[in-house]
Amino acid sequence: MTGELSDIREATYQVERQESHYAARRSNLHRQIEAARAELAKLRRPAKGRIAVRPAKGRIAVRPAKGRIAA
User: Fold this and answer.
1) Above 70 in pLDDT, residue 3?
2) pLDDT at residue 2, as a whole number
3) Count of domains in the chain?
4) Which value, to the nearest 10 degrees, does the dihedral of the CA atoms of residues 11, 13, 16, 20 take?
5) Is 7 inside any structural domain?
6) pLDDT in tens, 9-47
7) What is the value of pTM for the model shown?
8) Is residue 26 a part of any domain in this protein?
């Protein structure tokens, strides 16, 4: 009887551990999905706000102000 009870406790412990593992994995996947959605939203923005401007020699690249064209 004691052996059976021990086996049941061990099986219960294993199931709880597995549930915890799956919950952590699910949470991680949800975070990855949200990060991917955020990245996709960035990529869907108009291209002009994402294009890097090549600076003249010796100058620092600065993104042009909204509505202005970079020279």
Assistant:
1) yes
2) 84
3) 1
4) -130
5) yes
6) 999 999 999 999 999 999 999 999 999 999 999 888 876
7) 0.52
8) yes
For residues 46 and 29, what is the distance between their CA atoms, to the nearest angstrom?
28
Residue 47 vs residue 5, higher pLDDT: 5
**In this structure, what token pair is assigned to residue 61?**
């690249």
What residues make up the domain containing 8? 2-43
| Residue 6: inside a domain | yes
φ, ψ (nearest 5 deg) of residue 17 = -65, -45
Q: Which residues have CB under 8 Å from 54's CB, separation 6+?
A: 61
pLDDT given for residue 24 in this prediction: 98
For Cα atoms 15, 24, 32, give the angle at the middle one, nearest 5 degrees. Answer: 145
Instruction: Record the tokens describing residue 9, joined without a space.
Output: 């406790």
**Residue 56 maps to a domain:** no
